[in-house]
Amino acid sequence: xxxxxxxxxxxxxxxxxxxxxxxxxxxxxxxxxxxxxxxxxxxxxxxxxxxxxxxxxxxxxxxxxxxxxxxxxxxxxxxxxxxxxxxxxxxxxxxxxxxxxxxxxxxxxxxxxxxxxxxxxxxxxxxxxxxxxxxxxxxxxxxxxxxxxxxxxxxxxxxxxxxxxxxxxxxxxxxxxxxxxxxxxxxxxxxxxxxxxxxxxxxxxxxxxxxxxxxxxxxxxxxxxxxxxxxxxxxxxxxxxxxxxxxxxxxxxxxxxxxxxxxxxxxxxxxxxxxxxxxxxxxxxxxxxxxxxxxxxxxxxxxxxxxxxxxxxxxxxxxxxxxxxxxxxxxxxxxxxxxxxxxxxxxxxxxxxxxxxxxxxxxxxxxxxxxxxxxxxxxxxxxxxxxxxxxxxxxxxxxxxxxxxxxxxxxxxxxxxxxxxxxxxxxxxxxxxxxxxxxxxxxxxxxxxxxxxxxxxxx
Length: 459
Description:
By secondary structure, this protein is α+β, with helices and mostly antiparallel strands. It has helices at residues 7-17, 26-44, 51-63, 81-92, 107-119, 128-150, 157-173, 178-191, 197-201, 205-226, 241-246, 252-258, 280-293, 307-310, 324-327, 331-341, 346-349, 355-361, 405-418, 423-434, 436-439, 442-458; strands spanning 70-71, 78-79, 100-101, 268-269, 300-305, 364-368, 376-382, 390-395. The longest helix has 23 residues, at 128-150.
């Protein structure tokens, strides 16, 4: 296979084609705008989480303050692009309510990176949406085809496929040609990686993986721009990305047939609750079951879900819990908390000593069932008093969480109201996503400044 026929070259050709607005179907562009609104809107509600501030402190310690740099949204100071990506991705990831494409959270990688690039003059705003689309498409292509191999062995999809997405977006943002874009992708394939153990241990490394993924993708593109010599067969080679991580053959022909035709951005889903993407349906199912129970306390609860989800790190944890990293991942915790208290808020996920929740968790049995589709859940509640069991089956698909603009706007406003934000904030963000170039990134920065000030005032 010649360098002109490699997968990296094919993907580069597609990315470069997105510079032409006519190459992007209208529904794809609208989905990108909705993704952008979700990313900013959820990010505004994350100032009561510490992760952005921790990452800002680390980023500034590494690179120092830069008066002409990118804003570290968590504290308002300015630093390097690298510091901004690290901190702002951690902020956007604070509620664990960012978007998801399969098991990867690409929006909280791409949006902070591209925002910092626009603020510092590295990218004109007319490239924001095409670059965002490029990132979702490349990251989505690999996640959808290989996460089934990489996730079960402990590799986190956001850290594996996020650098590829970020490199694709950065290459378009920097206006790289086909040759340099292919090099950026090859570089990113060499820089990818990240494990899932922090979910099992209830620690915070996963909060910072997104900023590192963004940084690796940005560095990959900058190296390519500077002239790096990069492996043409980075993906399909015998020691390439797919064989090394997925332990499978790279079907170049199949991947080529999908890119630019399937539009993976349509598989991006949004989270109604501040819990893991795999826990959205269990929470919805528990809310429906709560209505049926009408105050009755089950003696036993059996939960059946797909093995891909029950096998994900932290999902089967029964506690004791000492961090929100543990509670939001735990299927038993999310179900017990919802049955007792209703739809979860971030504050609910931070209560670790609720004796009622702990007692109900003890009665929950989690089972892996390959006959239950992903994003679905079956809950059976039984009783000691002779009442008939309550069995609730909730089969959900990507389409159920693929919100249109109106539904997403309502979600952003609801989440914002949790922390005292006015609907006007969401409206200002929406003006920007509809016309980034005409509105200007200062509108976004101003809304984050207001949210930051409000959070400080009520702290």
